[in-house]
Amino acid sequence: MRLSYIIKITMSIVILLGTNTILGTNTVKADVKVPTSDLEIKLSYAPVVKSAAPAVVNIYTKRVVKNRNMWGRDPFFNRFFGSAPRERVERSLGSGVIVRSNGIIVTNEHVIAGADEITVILSDRREYEAEVILHDERTDLAILKLKTKNKKFPTLKFDNSDQIEVGDLVLAIGNPFGVGQTVTSGIISAVARTKVGTSDYQSFIQTDASVNPGNSGGALVDMKGRLIGINSAIFSRSGGSNGIGFAIPSNMVRFVLETALSDGKLVRPWFGASGQSVTQDIALSLGLNRPVGVMIDEVYPSGPADNAGLRSGDILLAIDGKEVYDSEALRFHIALKKIGGMVKVDILREEINKMLYLPLKAASESPARNITEIRGKTVFSNLKIVNLSPAFNDENNLDMFLKGVLILDLQRSSLRRFGLKKGDIFDKIDGKKINNVQDLTNIVKTIDNDIKFTVIRAGRIIGCEIRGRRYGCSFR
Questions:
Q1: Which of 116, 146, 176 finishes a domain?
Q2: Helices (H), 336-458
Q3: CA-to-CA distance for 122 and 301, rounded, in angstroms?
Q4: Of 256 and 75, which is predicted with more confidence?
């Protein structure tokens, strides 16, 4: 009886674990199993795709480019080769996502940049023209509106991109290479990626779902069929998918969308301080157990950071409880907030943790821009200039502390032959400091063509001198 009992127990173990496990040739995980029913065999992404795909569209753009006549106004050559400028049509393609039933679409700014015509093709092959409501190069997002009335369209609902985790399953839906709507699957490979795209506000979602040219502006959706990102860029040496794609988080997309539909103009809160990422060496010197945060270098007087009480040397650790690892992440988190109110900032100051409240204000427009094109018989004629201010500097991604008068355009100015460029900043004219546009225009009225002046370019000073027909500029 005892022997037969032992045999029965042994056979039960063999059946339960499998003979390979008993023999030591394989190890089977307890939670891994072969599908045992028709339902399990038929597990599919199809329900998610059916829910999300109708709201993803193909976008085709057309731009007419005029080529300048290489012969200029020469009558001899124009007689034989023609004087009319030739035109060529540039076409591009991308994807978009319908987010409002009345035909509001989100896509990438680079998909529609410079387009004269925008055609949107729905998943059911209907075609509509579209107009641009808002485009923002700094976030690489654009909001379009289908040119149609009294029609309802399928939409994708937003999900909270702050709640996604590495390893979550995702689907990328778009129009790669113009072949038509395509769905690929993958996982979230990383979150809060910075220094990987062309936009100013970076905190990308990284995915290994195949993303190719033409997918730009398409949807990255979760397993609930909700939008968690707009596919924006790929990391590739060949131009094809290498399993590294990046998407703009849905929370940023929603912010831009709501602004476009309410105000029509993006005005972002301004931090008002500069800083550098905390490296391992800095962390060790400060007694931190890991590198995290941004070390504040300089604070703009009377700016939001100054009003909050931030000082040079402070380590900014988190904004509203979200850790900050570099300046790009800091800009991103600030940009998601609306003007007005406060945001909580956690800092480390002299080994003491503090909590401050940062007022959410727009960058100062002082002095006013006063964009001016200089007229009259002077070497400065046809020069377009503007006053620098925190607002102008922030919009154009310039150092917030730059002041003075910047050259906006000199295409028709004789100063081009001196080697001056758009973006140069006037320093002095005949020894007089140039603080604003009014200073420059006043000086221009009183000087002749014998003149000395200096401009600043990338932190270096260029000295220029004009004496009659002789002129020259040199770096100092």
A1: 146
A2: 390-395, 437-444
A3: 51
A4: 256
Contacts (Cβ under 8 Å, ≥6 apart) of 162: 249, 251, 322
Instruction: Please indicate, yes or no, if residue 153 is contained in any of the structural domains.
Output: no
Per residue in 436-469, pLDDT tens? Answer: 999 999 988 887 767 888 999 988 888 888 776 6
Report the alpha-carbon distance of residue 383 to residue 369 in Å, rounded: 15
Nearest residue to 230 (alpha-carbon basis) of 222, 241, 221, 239:
221
The answer as to whether 397 is a domain residue is yes
Q: Does one domain contain both 328 and 297? A: yes
Structure tokens at 1: 């009886």
Do 170 and 220 touch, CB atoms closer than 8 A? yes
Whether 154 maps to a domain, the answer reads no
Residues 259-318 have pLDDT tens digits of 889 877 788 899 999 999 999 998 888 888 889 999 999 999 999 999 999 999 999 999
Given the residues 95, 136, 140, 250, the one annotated as active site: 140
Q: Provide φ and ψ at 64, rounded to 5°.
A: -95, 120
Q: Write the CATH number for 184.
A: 2.40.10.10
Query: Within this chain, do residues 322 and 386 fall inside the same structural domain, yes or no?
Result: no
Give the count of domains, the chain. 4
The pair of structure tokens assigned to 12 is 């039960």
Contacts of 290 (CB under 8 A, 6+ apart): 283
Structural domain containing residue 226? 161-262
- Selected catalytic residue, list 92, 95, 110, 424: 110
Which distant-in-sequence residues (6+ apart) come within 8 Å of 296 by Cβ?
Answer: 273, 274, 275, 305, 310, 311, 312, 313, 314, 315, 316
* Whether 274 is catalytic: no
Contacts (Cβ under 8 Å, ≥6 apart) of 4: none
Q: Is 258 left (phi over 0), alpha (psi -120 to 50) or beta?
A: alpha
| Token digits of residue 437 | 């546009």
Task: Please check whether residue 30 lies inside any domain of the structure.
Answer: no
Known catalytic residue at 4: no
Number of helices (H), then strands (E), belonging to the chain: the values are 12, 26
DSSP E strand stretches across 137-226: 141-146, 169-174, 182-193, 204-207, 219-221
Q: How far is 226 from 219, CA to CA, in rounded Å?
A: 9
**Catalytic member of 199, 210, 216, 413:** 216
140 is catalytic: yes
- CA distances to 49, 218, 228, 248, 400 from 197, in Å: 28, 16, 18, 10, 22
Quick one: 125 and 75 in the same domain? Answer: yes
Show Cβ contacts of residue 66 under 8 Å, excluding neighbours closer than 6 positions. 85, 86, 87
For residue 344, the domain's CATH number is 2.30.42.10
Which of 148-152, 227-231, 315-319, 327-331 is predicted least confidently?
327-331
